[in-house]
Each structure stands twice: as C-alpha cells, then as structure tokens.
Design brief:
The complex is a heterodimer of chains A (about 400) and B (about 525).
Chain A (H helix, E strand, L loop, with lengths): L1 H26 L9 H34 L15 H30 L6 E8 L2 E6 L4 E5 L3 H6 L22 E4 L4 E7 L4 E5 L4 E5 L5 E5 L5 E7 L11 E7 L1 H12 L2 H8 L6 H20 L23 H10 L15 H13 L11 H13 L11
Parallel strand pairs in A: 1-5, 4-10
Antiparallel strand pairs in A: 1-2, 2-3, 5-8, 6-7, 6-9, 9-10
Helix pairs in contact in A: 1-2, 2-3, 7-9, 9-10
Chain B lengths: L1 H5 L10 H7 L3 H29 L10 H36 L7 H20 L25 H29 L12 H32 L13 H18 L2 H15 L6 H14 L15 H29 L8 H24 L1 H7 L3 H31 L5 H28 L13 H30 L47
Classes of the chains: A alpha+beta (about 400), B mainly alpha (about 525).
C-alpha cells in the first residue's frame, strides 16, 4: 500500500513538474540556432544537454516532492530506520556516469569540428581596441574600423533625453559593418591592441577572445544572407557594453562588387595622398571624424574628458603645449593608463588630422597645423629601436 | 592541555564593552564577530547589487556612468565572496566545530582573534578605494590584466586588502584543521564527525592550498603595475592568459570553499527535520573529498574561449563533467534521507529544501556550461550570471540562512519568530527566482555580462529581474530584524531545541555557556549525529 501510494504520488509529481517546466521554457528565450552549419550543431547540442538535465531535474524534484507530500509528520508518517544502501548508491553513481558519457561524445565531435580551420577560402583579421573593432581582409587588402553607430552613441549618454526604443538596433549597430560572402569558409584571426576583448556573434555559434600578444583563430561558413548582430563579451573597460559586432552576409557576387567598390579608384588615391600636406580645412574636417571615432569615447566630443581617468583636452597642457610632446603621447600612448599608442593603429595622416583638430577645437587656439610628415618624424626613430612585434603565429 | 583549559576564565576579570570583543579569544564570541561582520558586508554588497539592478531596470543609462557601474560589479563580487560568504562560514565553524566535536575551544585562540580582526581593516581599505581619485577596481573581481593594470594608484590598496583577506583565511583554516585533528572528544572518531565538521576540514585544506596562489597572482599584478615587470604583459614577453590560469587555479577551489561547508550544513539540517539518520554518511564524506580533489583539475573551464589546444579543452571538459557524479551522490543522499522520514517544515528545513532544489538547478546549468562548444555561446553571458547566482545565493547564502535559523536558538537561548522566519523564507525564495531565473533567458538570447546598458530586446526580462532583485534585497532587511528580535528575546529554547536533533551541540544548554566541554564528553554511536557505516 505504501509503495503504491508513493508510485501514484510520484507520477503525479512528475506530471506537475513537467507542466511547470514546460511553462518556464515556453515563456523564455532560447539560444538562436544561427546561420551556419556549425551554429546549428551547437544549438542541437545545447538542446540535447538541456533536455537531459531537465529530465534529471524533473525526476529528482518529483522524488523530493513525493517525499515532502507523503512523509510528513503531520500526516502521521513514522521515520524509517534505514540509512544506507550499497545497491542504490552504486546505481546512482553508474547511471550519471553513463549519461555524462552520452553527452561527452557529441560534444567532443562538435568541438573537433570547430577547431578545424583548414580549407578556409578567405582570412579576416579582427583586432579589438578600446572600444571598437578593426577588420582586415587579408586577401582583398581592405581594412577599416567598426564602432558603435552615432544614433546609439548619442542615445546612450546619461540624460541624453533620447529613448533607446526610438533608435533602430540600439547598441547593436555600427558605422561600418563587416561584409562577408555567404557559402564561403572564412577563417577569422583574432587579436587585440590593448586589453582582452571577445568577439561574439550568437548566430555564428561561438565567441573567441581577442588577446594582446596572441592570435586566436576560428572559422565560420554562413549560408543565409542577412545582418547578424553581437557584442564584445569580455569586460574591456568602461565602454565594454558599447562595442557591437555587426556582420552583413551577402552573396559571393555581391561581396565581389563590395570589394571592388572599397578598393576601386580609392586605392590609388589613398597611396598618392597619404603623405601629402593638407590645408587647414581638410585637416580639421578629417580630424573631427577621427576624433569622434577614436578619441571621443574617453575625452568626450566636447573635449571635456571624464575625470580623473580621462583628462580633458580643452585647455590641456599637453594639447596646447609643445607639439613634439603631444605627438609623443598620441603616437606612443601612456603606459599604465587607458591612453593607447595610436601610432600602431592609425595612419600618419589620421593622427596629424586628429592632432590638428584637438589643438584647434574646444577653445584650444594654438593655430598649429600638423602634417603627416611631422608625425612620421616621431614614429620613425622609435621604429628603429625596434618595437617588439607582439604578434605570435597561431599555433 | 586539559590543565590550561580547566582554569582559564574564572580567574581572570572579563573585559567589558568594546574591549571584550577586541580582546576575546573565545570561539563563541569570535564566531559571533564573524557572523555580525558577514551580515554587515552582506548588506553593503547587497546595496551595490541594488545599484546594479536599478541601472539595468530599463535600457539606456539613467543613474550611474559605465565606470562606476564596473566598480559596482567588481566590488559587489569581492565583498560578497570575501566579506559575506567566507566569513559567515568561518563564523559558523568557530561557533559550531568545537561544540560538535566536544572541544573546549579552538586550538589556537589568540590566532583566532587575530584572523578575525584583520578582516574589518581589509574591508575598510577595500571600501576606501571608492573614495579615491582613481576609484575602486573596475575590471571585475577576477582582475584580468591588462585591463586591471589600467587602474590608478588605488589598485595597490585593492591588492593589499586581498592579501589581508588571504592571511585571515589561511589563519582561520589552520586553526580549524588543528582543532579538528587534535581536539576531538574521546570516541569522536573521524567517521563519527558531523558532516559540517568534515566539509570544513576539507575546505580548510583547500583554503591553505589556494589562497597563496591568489596572493602570488595579485602580487605579480602589483609589480606589473607599479614596478615595470612584465609577467602578464605580452610586449615584455609575458602572457595575459597565464594570469587567468593562475587565477582560476585559485578560483575554482575557491568556488568549492564557498559551497562545501554549505553541503555540511544541509547534511545536518535535513536529518534533524526528517527525524532520520543521514543517508549514506560515508559516501557523503568520500564525495566531498572527491569534489575537493577534482576542484584542482578543472580550472580552465572558466576560460574555454581564450583559445586552448584541443586536447586541453577536452581534458577540462571531461574533468568538469566528472564533478557531476559526486555532486549527484550528495543530492540523491539528501533526497533519500528525506524519503520515508517524518518531516516537519520549520524555517531551517524550508531553506534546506530550497537549497537542494535550487542548488540542483545551478548544478544542472553547470553541466551545460561544461560542454565546451555550447560554452562558446554561454560564456560571459547572463546565463553564467544566472548559473553562479543559483549556486552562490540559493546555494551558499541559503545554506547560511538555514544554519542561522537552525543554530540561532542555541546561540541566543531564544527561539526566533517562526512566523516571520517563514515569511522571510517564502519572500526570499520567490523573489530570488524572479531575480535570477530570467537571467538564463537573457544569456541565451545574447546579453553579455558586465554591461551597464543593453539592447531593447532584453528590456522585459531585465525589468522582471530587477523587480525580483529589489524584493529579494528588502527580504534580507526582514532577516536582520528577525535576528535582532531573536537576540533581544523570545520563547526560551531548550537544550535540544529541535525534536530530531542529534549531536553534541544539542547536549549543552541554550544559550550555550561561554565555556563548554571543559571536561570532554564520551562519544559513541548513540550520541553522535551520524553513524559510521563502515564500523
């Protein structure tokens, strides 16, 4: 009679807990299945493991609640005397081991698949910086930075008065998307220019850390055109939440067209003008763009900075002082602070423009025009001392 | 030894007031100091959690800027781990271990005093960084370089505070080991010891093994930051990933330092309120030891995304999955202890049952996290935040709550207010699930952790989570009131307190006099809480 009771109550508990669990899963979000063969494998693995642990949970909790319901003093239950059962203990050691082995086998298979970057048709190098990404297409010789888009950036300031709900893809949009072809195995190399970041796109099924001094690799093969959004996943400082990853997958034909658009005509022009002197207007205009993309996150758009970590540039002693010192700080950074060595990531032309801009904006009135040649003269001697290359070959 | 313990107190005038607490070498008074300190830190760390949840209440930045938000997440973790959970367990050990093994006091009473009194200074230093120009640490409690090295001079204070906490923990651990191994009453064989004593013995060894590792890691950070070394600086030949390996070699055992004593507490409470001996006592002991051993060989599962060789990833995945076996044994043993018992549901038992259920949920999501390819998605998202809050809040903290209700009558001599206790339980248990369960969804849907603002697609579950957070925070103020009320008065507690309670601590009067077991008791199977099933 006792055993029959326990069985009936137990089954009822299984039913009730199953319904509750189903409800809990139904109201929630789940992992996206993604748009690559690999991401679907990960999704399946996730669902298998989730299913197994859910069933285990249901049975454990059903046993507990059966006991809580039946074996209570208020129902007149008397305590049994047993406190040991070798048979039971062997069973609940062996069965979990078998379940774990069953989970480990597909997990191992998917992991081995992920690690195999051979046969990649193109390579993209991703470099994380505080707080934007640099994308370099190694075969097509395209390189650009990708930062949070202006609308999101304006809305995310404290007291901006702009509702995030009115911004399209709030915090998940960038100025320059990473455009990639579909149906192409792409190897992605990851590194960082300052602190550790992590490049994550849920629809690809993985994230991988971008670590200074190391090159990590991963691969993907997207089979559905579309725009996919993710974020930096490793805490990288104050704007960690504001460096999205946006990938636009297009057909291989459209990709070729995009590449042609990026490189066609512009390439020669860029080479020709890289070291040319620029006039004040050109320097200021280009400088403002560079400043907003690379400097404003810390020093603010109006140069007011954020004390004490990020000094104001308006009226700043270095910015309004001797030019060589200013160039030195921008090119080589300030070790031990968040001030990066921009000589390693920007062209001389960009640095010259940014320097000109900061020396003539926010009420700074030095009147100085800084030309690319001035900057190069600062970079070169340092290069001769051989800046240690921090890139290690991938293992 | 019996000679000295026999005439310590009565001949000396007891200092009164503040001096009593500053100079005390009594294990019960030091236990109280630890517990009060821990409760204070729980409130401070909880206040920081409220700031975090308030900022995340809706998308957009409303209250704090991102730097301060990062300081809050970092400080919340450091304070909860080193200030709230660990001292609470040490406090419980101080109070209960000598009484449970029939010892008159801890083995090293003066060191006991010192190991407590370091803590308030350590936390004053840590908290003072909030008011320094360069602010509190903002790189997460893991202090990963190079980010942590971007902090200002306050970083030196953080490291000094961590060193002090480590020294305190190591001294506490030495004391607990010395007490358990040397001062057990006659007949209190190792396999008759209460499970709480066993789990603490093992925890103490973990502490001694890994706190120096943390000290080494943060000292290298210190010299990298201030003395131009390059342990973790790639440009100087160092390796930032090496820090993560060292840190997690400390960090994973640390996780078990915060849960093994909780296992011990639950293993005391469930038999009492089931009126039945603990099921599988011996296998519980071996399972605890296995978990402790495994904790040393799974550290890299915290860093699957740094790009490890395939073989290493597979090893750490398999080793991590193996932990599910001894942990499962524990869960099954608790359920079997309840099975065909004669249960009542006073507040400690309610918290213990909630522990078993909610810790199991945290453990099962832990199994999911062990699966490396899936972890490439889960890692550093709110799924992880949900996972470790299930094991730490509804695990460790719920066990501490259960212990407080269970032993409070023994400490104060009064029963706590059962009605308020039950309200506290239901309020906490419902709100904590509203707080943390939706975070699983957020993580799966793509929300990274440690961000002050988020895309609008995450708004609903963050809103729900924040409401749960405020409710849970408020419930803990009720707990503070229940404790105060119980200290001040209430129904007189008997020596046994609970009908089904076994063990030496229930043979002394309530409140436990300042000195107990000056003459060691004789222990056999009828007195001990558990039966050695091998004997």
């Amino acid at each position: 009679m006792k055993r029959t009771n326990e069985l009936i109550v137990g089954l009822a508990m299984v039913a009730v807990i199953t319904v509750i669990t189903w409800g809990v899963f139904a109201v929630g979000d789940n992992m996206p299945a993604g748009v690559t063969p690999y991401s679907r494998e990960v999704y399946q693995l996730h669902m298998i493991v989730l299913g197994i642990v859910t069933v285990i949970g249901i049975f454990v909790f059903a046993a507990m609640f059966t006991s809580i319901y039946l074996h209570r003093k208020s129902r007149g239950a008397e305590a049994a005397k047993f406190n040991h059962s070798t048979k039971a203990e062997i069973i609940w050691t062996v069965i979990p081991i078998l379940i774990l082995v069953a989970m480990a086998i597909p997990a191992t298979r998917v992991l081995i698949d992920m690690e195999d970057t051979s046969g990649a048709e193109m390579n993209i190098k991703v470099t994380g910086y505080q707080w934007l990404w640099q994308y370099e297409y190694l075969e097509d010789d395209i390189s650009f930075y990708s930062a949070l888009d202006r609308d999101s950036n304006a809305a995310r300031q404290i007291g901006s008065g702009i509702s995030p709900r009115e911004v399209d893809n709030y915090l998940l949009e960038v100025d320059n998307r990473l455009v990639v072809p579909t149906d192409t195995k792409i190897r992605i190399l990851l590194t960082s220019g300052d602190v550790i970041h992590s490049w994550w796109l849920p629809d690809l099924g993985w994230k991988r850390d971008a670590i200074p001094g190391m090159v990590n690799e991963a691969w993907t093969l997207i089979d559905e055109p579309g725009v996919y959004r993710g974020q930096c996943a490793e805490l990288c400082g104050k704007d960690h939440g504001f460096m999205p990853v946006v990938v636009e997958a297009v057909s291989p034909e459209d990709y070729r067209a995009w590449v042609a658009e990026q490189t066609g005509g512009q390439e020669t022009a860029a080479v020709d003008t890289a070291m040319d002197e620029m006039d004040r207007e050109a320097l200021m205009a280009h400088g403002e763009d560079i400043y907003e993309a690379h400097c404003a996150a810390c020093h603010r758009e109006d140069g007011s900075g954020m004390q004490p970590a990020f000094p104001a540039l308006a009226g700043n002693a270095v910015v309004t002082g001797e030019l060589s010192q200013h160039i030195d700080v921008v090119v080589n950074g300030r070790p031990g602070t968040a001030m990066a060595a921009f000589g390693q990531r920007l062209e001389a032309r960009d640095i010259a423009a940014a320097l000109t801009y900061t020396r003539n904006a926010f009420g700074n009135e030095t009147g100085d025009l800084v030309q690319p040649a001035d900057v190069v003269s600062m970079i070169d001697p340092r290069l001769d001392e051989s800046i240690v290359s921090t890139d290690r070959p991938p293992n | 030894m019996t000679d000295t313990t026999a005439h310590t107190d009565d001949h000396h005038a007891q200092p009164k007031g503040l001096a009593r607490w500053i100079f005390t070498t009594n294990h019960k008074e030091i236990g109280t100091l630890y517990l009060v300190f821990s409760l204070a830190m729980f409130i401070v760390g909880g206040a920081m959690a409220m700031i975090i949840r308030a900022e995340l209440f809706q998308p957009g930045l409303q209250l704090v800027n991102p730097e301060f938000f990062n300081q809050m997440t970092t400080m919340h973790a450091l304070i909860m781990i080193f200030g709230a959970v660990m001292p609470a367990f040490v406090g419980l050990a101080n109070w209960m271990v000598p009484m449970m093994i029939g010892a008159p006091d801890m083995a090293l009473p003066r060191m006991n005093n010192w190991s407590f009194w370091i803590l308030p200074f350590a936390f004053l230093i840590l908290l003072s960084t909030l008011f320094m120009p360069s602010g509190a640490p903002a790189s997460g409690w893991t202090l990963y370089p190079p980010l942590s090295l971007q902090g200002g001079n306050s970083f030196a204070f953080v490291i000094f505070a961590i060193h002090l906490m480590g020294i305190s923990s190591i001294m506490g651990a030495i004391n607990i080991i010395a007490t358990i191994l040397n001062m057990r009453a006659p007949g209190m064989t190792l396999l008759r010891m209460p499970l709480f004593v066993w789990t603490w013995l093992i925890t103490a060894f973990l502490l001694i093994a890994v706190m120096p590792v943390l000290a080494g890691a943060v000292t290298m950070l210190l010299t990298d930051r201030f003395f131009d070394t390059s342990f973790f600086n790639a440009a100087g030949g160092g390796d930032p990933v090496m820090y993560q390996h060292i840190f997690w070699f400390f960090g994973h055992p640390e996780v078990y330092i915060m849960i093994l004593p909780a296992f011990g507490i639950i293993s005391e409470i469930i038999p009492t309120f089931s009126r039945k001996r603990l099921f599988g006592y011996t296998s519980m002991v071996y399972a605890t030891a296995s978990i402790a051993f495994l904790s040393f060989i799974v550290w890299a599962h915290h860093m699957f995304t740094v790009g490890m060789p395939l073989g290493a990833s597979l090893f750490f995945m398999y080793a991590t999955m193996v932990i599910a076996v001894p942990t499962g044994i524990k869960i099954f043993n608790w359920v079997s202890t309840m099975w065909r018992g004669s249960m009542t549901f006073e507040t400690p038992m309610l918290f213990a049952i909630a522990f078993v259920i909610l810790f199991t949920i945290g453990g099962l999501s832990g199994v999911m996290l062990a699966i490396v390819p899936a972890d490439f998605q889960y890692h550093d998202t709110y799924f992880v935040v949900a996972h470790f809050h299930y094991v730490l809040v509804t695990g460790a903290v719920f066990a501490i709550m259960a212990a407080a209700y269970y032993w409070m009558p023994k400490w104060t001599g009064h029963m706590y207010d059962e009605r308020l206790g039950k309200i506290h339980f239901w309020w906490s248990t419902i709100s904590v699930n509203v707080l943390f369960f939706p975070q699983h969804y957020l993580g799966l849907a793509g929300m990274p952790r440690r961000i002050p603002d988020y895309s609008v697609q995450f708004a609903e579950f963050n809103l729900i989570s924040s409401i749960g957070g405020f409710a849970f925070g408020l419930a803990q103020l009720l707990f503070v009131w229940i404790v105060i009320k119980c200290v001040r008065g209430g129904q007189k507690a008997t020596a046994g307190v609970w009908e089904g309670a076994r063990g030496l601590e229930w043979t002394v009067p309530s409140p436990a006099p300042l000195h107990t077991f000056d003459t060691p008791p004789q222990v056999d199977d009828t007195v001990s809480a558990h039966k050695d099933q091998l004997a």
